[in-house]
Amino acid sequence: MDIRFEKREHLQEKPDQKNLGFGKHFTDYMFVMDWDKEQGWHDAAIVPYGGIPMDPATMVLHYAQETFEGMKAYRTAEGKIQLFRPEMNARRMIKSNERLCMPGVPEEMFVEAVKALVKAQEDWVPSEPGTSLYIRPFMFATEASLGVHMAKSYKFVIITTPVGAYYAEGINPVKILVEDEYVRAVKGGTGFTKCGGNYASSIAGQVKAEKMGCTQVLWLDGVHRKYVEEVGTMNIMFKIAGEIYTAPLEGTVLPGVTRDSLIHILRDWGYKVNETHLSIDDLMKAGHDGTLEEAFGTGTAAVVSPVGEFVYKDDSVIVNDFKIGELTQKLYDTLTGIQWGKLEDKYGWTTPVE
Amino acid sequence: MDIRFEKREHLQEKPDQKNLGFGKHFTDYMFVMDWDKEQGWHDAAIVPYGGIPMDPATMVLHYAQETFEGMKAYRTAEGKIQLFRPEMNARRMIKSNERLCMPGVPEEMFVEAVKALVKAQEDWVPSEPGTSLYIRPFMFATEASLGVHMAKSYKFVIITTPVGAYYAEGINPVKILVEDEYVRAVKGGTGFTKCGGNYASSIAGQVKAEKMGCTQVLWLDGVHRKYVEEVGTMNIMFKIAGEIYTAPLEGTVLPGVTRDSLIHILRDWGYKVNETHLSIDDLMKAGHDGTLEEAFGTGTAAVVSPVGEFVYKDDSVIVNDFKIGELTQKLYDTLTGIQWGKLEDKYGWTTPVE
């Protein structure tokens, strides 16, 4: 792929690595590439980060033909930079785009673009413990037209932002509201994709949870309103009587890279991982009879996010005395150890940016 | 409301009224207004139509917090301009925005903005039979941030485009695919809103229908995959054994202004209108035993769109010999008669733009 480079006159000052937050500071450059039917993908370029002029009739502003990905670049103790399973993000974006009738960026092209952008601004990959460069590839319909149809042109953009440790004071368990009014996904819909519409519709549940003193939402399936699917914008796993449970990938749940990696590690450690439908009634029952040992969300941003309490209608259960579980901590340490190059990468999951 | 007016230096040449198409030509001006928590709605202005610069981290491009409306301005035989039930669009947008956790534009402000924009460019309202000025109010999150949350700032925009008769050669029945794989909406989701995500997820069904030689999709409910809900981006009505059937407004179906108006007219004419769940099996059965007399989609763009055939799995039924039904035609003539001021507006549905 031929990537044009447009030099920026003045580079920004870099933010304090100890106060990065999440998605607040954007780096000096972004990757852009356009698609249309005649030329396919063309005009790949790394250009100064900045505004994209948009016609008010641009289809993405009306019909939300838009998808995204989330991944990170990690700086190792030796000062090298590595990515974690970037080909998984590339493939997932292709699947998202298929469902949304958008063109896919071929896997090699996607990974090459990510690497080139990170390499071009390697000084932006922070080195403080727990920090990383968050990478946000996204694509949207650019045709200016008001008919509802597959757009004739798209833009693929990658922006990057240095981010701090997700949990400034270590990972703490959170209180979760089991949502029985709003639905995140249903089979036949877009639940397995990272399309904008999924996130827009989820905000109401999040707002409601916060009003009720909870941090996040546990989503139930849209048909029976019974089976546990995701927590907030993460996958979720449970340890019940020594075995692991997580929702199966049947079209309503995001195929998380962290989810997949943790399942690999857990099975490697000899755990039985059940990718199966777990009902909220069985979960609450396990909470009450003490067999629910641990519960945690999994995702790129937080890696693992322990759950301390589930609130469902008039009932609630505390998990592991509202303390992070032993297995949860071990999974966090192992996966982040591989990602930051502190532990041996026996699965071959990391890719150097050279 | 104080609306600033920013004059455009050169007005565009107006397109040929006989070849307008849909959403191809945009007028000289647009309405814009911004919202943030501190100021609420502010900076209302009518400005030259043109590009809106957008930071690549703008939330609408990632999480699709965006809603829209669709309505028309009609030119009467006397040369006057009128709107059709604009307060219904205003109220529906407020409902859409509530679900998406976006601020609402108050009804009076919404209608005033629409009128001011139409008035400012009244020369753009075409006069050829069947033509109108399509009005597209829309709103989107403008905050530049990658956290998934209710955005802190929004933009409300209205653009307008002169449109031709939806059916250049009169209204013709179309062939419809009953979709049993993709789902448009489920209770607890966003089906009753005009949010971008609904439309993005619907494109795959449309593409599939076209591949199978059909013009549009008939959506079934997301839970039982059994009850008839909408057709394409329209509501749908059936005349079976002399009575009218249409899906009830229970959260999965758009509360269409045309739907509501036709129900009023039909009941006024003495028809029994059943807002109830009609199963696809009962529909196909009615098609086979001859009691399915007419079927038509209803919406702002096409007003009524007759269905000539339903294809469901290996079965198919022809409606009214693939000809437009008598009632369908009468409804079309009556509603468009009121909208263009050719018939008496006994319901008080039209509002002059003065």
From TrEMBL, chains A, B:
Pfam families: Aminotran_4. Pathway: Amino-acid biosynthesis; L-leucine biosynthesis; L-leucine from 3-methyl-2-oxobutanoate: step 4/4; Amino-acid biosynthesis; L-isoleucine biosynthesis; L-isoleucine from 2-oxobutanoate: step 4/4; Amino-acid biosynthesis; L-valine biosynthesis; L-valine from pyruvate: step 4/4. The lineage of its organism: Bacteria, Bacillati, Bacillota, Clostridia, Lachnospirales. It comes from the Bacteria. It comes from Fusicatenibacter saccharivorans. Its EC number is 2.6.1.42. This is branched-chain-amino-acid transaminase. CDD domains: BCAT_beta_family (cd01557). One of its GO terms (molecular function) is branched-chain-amino-acid transaminase activity. GO terms for biological process: isoleucine biosynthetic process; L-leucine biosynthetic process; L-valine biosynthetic process. Belongs to the class-IV pyridoxal-phosphate-dependent aminotransferase family. InterPro entries: Aminotrans_IV (IPR001544), Aminotransferase-like (IPR036038), B_amino_transII (IPR005786), BCAT-like_C (IPR043132), BCAT-like_N (IPR043131), BCAT_family (IPR033939). Its cofactor is pyridoxal 5'-phosphate. The gene is ilvK. The modification N6-(pyridoxal phosphate)lysine is found at K194. It catalyses: L-leucine + 2-oxoglutarate = 4-methyl-2-oxopentanoate + L-glutamate; L-isoleucine + 2-oxoglutarate = (S)-3-methyl-2-oxopentanoate + L-glutamate; L-valine + 2-oxoglutarate = 3-methyl-2-oxobutanoate + L-glutamate. Keywords: Amino-acid biosynthesis, Aminotransferase, Branched-chain amino acid biosynthesis, Pyridoxal phosphate, Transferase.
